[in-house]
Amino acid sequence: MSQTSASPRSVEGMPSPAHIWLVLIQPMESLPQGYHLQIPLTMIESFAVPRSRSKFLRFIGYCVVGVKGHLKRELTQEQGAGTVRLLNVNDADELVDQGVYHFFTPSGEGIIADSFVDLDVVVRKHTLSYTTTATRDPHLEMQTPNPILDMDDISRRVERGMVRYGTSYPTQCRYTFKYMTNEMEEDQFSVFYPDNIDATFVQSNKDTLPSGPLLDYVFGATAVVEWGCHDLTDTFNNLGYQPYHPTAAPHSFGLTTTRHDHSATRQKRDMLTPQPEEEGGSVAGEEVDGLDFVMFLRINTGAAKRRREEEDSALRSRISAWASDVE
Questions:
Q1: Residue 312: enclosing H or E segment and its boundaries?
Q2: Confidence of residue 34 (pLDDT cuts 50, 70, 90)
Q3: For the whole prediction, is pTM greater than 0.85?
Q4: pLDDT at 315
Q5: How many other β-carbons are positioned within 10 Å of the β-carbon of residue 83?
Q6: How far is CA 93 from the centre of its chain?
């Protein structure tokens, strides 16, 4: 580890025993505690082999934020300065019980919420199909290798008594079933689906394996739901944003050959029409779930912002070229 410059204090207090904090959003005026995950060390140990547990923590940050980054750990607080010293963390370093870790992007800075673009803005500017649900299951499937982890960075799979005929394990990757809480490992569901089993696939259909980036996205959302330190809706409100959930357009009601009571049709149309308290599908008081929050962070990475700027520039160029042609 190497020592780096001082950084503002992330949050008050300290992690619970046998837990660590992963700071994802640095403190700011409207969010003085920033945003962090409190992760049980037992869960990290369940996922990763000893030499890769810091690397796995970096993987969690990648899944939530959507870009690769590096970790720094708080060392000591300087008396009267309100700052802490940060140490660079290598992938092979052991995690420190009750340690506070910060996830930093390639630019060398933490995520600062002051520069966030509202999710509403991005959805309105693009043709996106966006749906979400507030309920998540505390288990998931993780693919390795991925942009951070190799197959041997996670624990060895639990061998099955029998592999179904006509199926086999992929040779170049793993799809590992994992629980995100210790309680689930004691649930009756785990009798049929034990923790750390690998998926098998039909041998003739291996070209249609699950999407790795999508699994990483779901992992990030599940991590936020299970380990997030603050209520997501409150965090969004403090940042001044509302989740944008497009409202379905009324169905087209064509001519029919039979007579109907049109009161039912009018009632159905009213149900599909945005109500006065709804503005653009963003409903006051609507709960924010993990997918909302992770998508919000991912559209505010430097790469995403540059991509939107390039798209806007290309669109303006095409409009200018079209205007010149029609003059």
A1: helix 302-326
A2: confident
A3: no
A4: 83
A5: 14
A6: 24
Judge whether residue 204 has pLDDT over 80: no
User: Cα separation of 175 and 41, whole Å?
Assistant: 22
Q: State whether 38 and 87 are in the same domain.
A: yes
Note whether 111 and 25 are same-domain residues: yes
Would the pLDDT of 147 be above 50? yes
- DSSP, collapsed to helix, strand or coil, labels residue 292 as helix
Report DSSP state, residue 304.
H
DSSP per position, 218-272: HHHHHHHHHHBSS-HHHHHHHHT-----PPPPPPP----SS---HHHHHHHHHHH
Token look-up 């970790």 returns 71
Cα atoms in the 13 Å half-sphere on the side-chain side of 210:
23
Q: What are phi and psi of 5, to 5 degrees?
A: -70, 165
Assess whether 40 and 67 both reside in one domain.
yes
Provide the number of structural domains found in the chain: 2
